[in-house]
Amino acid sequence: MNTEILRISDIKRDSDLILRAGELIASGGIVAIPTETVYGLGANALNPKAVAKVFEAKGRPSDNPFIVHICERRQLSELCHHVPAEAAALAERLWPGPLTLVLPRKSHIPDIVTAGLDTVGIRFPSHPIARAIIKASGVPVAAPSANLSGRPSTTSFAHTFEDLNGRVDAIVDGGDAYAGVESTVISVKKGSIRLLRPGVITLEDISQALSEQGIERCEIILDEALRRKLTADERPRAPGMKYRHYAPRAPVTAFTGAPALTAEEIRRRCGGREHMAVLCFDEYRDMFKNAVSYGSKNDMAAQAHNLFDALRRFDEMEGVEEILAQCPSDEGVGLAVANRLKKAAGFNVVEVGKEQTLFWER
Ligand code: TXA
Ligand code: MG
Predict the structure, then answer these.
(1) Cα–Cα distance between 104 and 221 in angstroms, integer?
(2) Exposed site from 35, 90, 161, 352, fewest CB < 10 Å?
(3) Ligand 1: centre distance to CA 215 (Å)
(4) For domain 252-359, which architecture applies?
(5) What is this structure's pTM?
(6) Phi and psi for 324 in degrees, rounded to 5?
(7) What would be the CATH architecture of the domain defined by 1-243?
């Protein structure tokens, strides 16, 4: 397939390219677009044939549902048959932005989009190019991350091109995605919110938004799949959580604990061996030979932004057989970074100096 490249730097000046992308989606094509989290691969969510092409281009398992992207809040009630007050409040405060609300779906959404579930994930992205293209298409846009299935999500045009050139109708070059990790996914019921995937919108952001909107009582549950690998017979609430995502080719081990201790432990385990590579915080870069750093130890936003690019770099390095990675704590955006890294490691996690952690962090 010949893939059109649409380079968009300004939504007004490049309005013809926005229209082209929108038209391709409206007519059943599939187009990779930048969003504020990662690049997405978009199709008309109401056209099952177009959505099937996305599964095929990505090599995605058919039991993993897509998020439906909208460009106006009112589309939420057009797509979901029940919107609890909690969801309406979060849409009001945190949209447009990197938050996906999983709610009961209306029946006109094709089964292929939701993988047969009776709920649908809805997101109103804030990226101006994404919003303009969704608007130009005139339809809700189903879009998973624009990587080949099993590889890290793509955060730049170059990586999107690497994975999808020749497999999709068009790729929009709109610069780097900002956040670097995918949206926060929550399922929302009256009085109860379940975190299915952490992102740069944190638990603190969610509880603050709820209280600002006058909702005082709402439990927030961290889904079990965030903490451990599910067993073969357990069914995850977000089907995507069961797959080994974001994985570089070499196996990864994640090290949690105070950064100074994890750096020391990783150095000890490397022991001058040639085929070990290290993913570390900036401060410890000089301790290792084959290392990629992904942000300062206390700058979780930078770590989120750089993580997927850093993971991809190991695939470009010669002869890497094992990757040892420093993992941040679960606080704030750290929860999203640690979750992606632990998944890349298939939950192969070493907790370093557990009892000493508090002492060392102070
Ligand atoms: O930031 C993002 O969310 C990006 C950009 C492109 O918007 N999209 C993205 O899509 O990350 P994807 O398909 O790579 O991840 C969607 C996740 C999967 O883990 C999927 O299982 C879950 O959301 N999900 C989607 N619909 C769901 C539903 N109805 N119930 C539970 N989980 C759902
Ligand atoms: Mg994905």
Answers:
(1) 18
(2) 161
(3) 26
(4) 3-Layer(aba) Sandwich (3.40)
(5) 0.93
(6) -110, 130
(7) Alpha-Beta Complex (3.90)
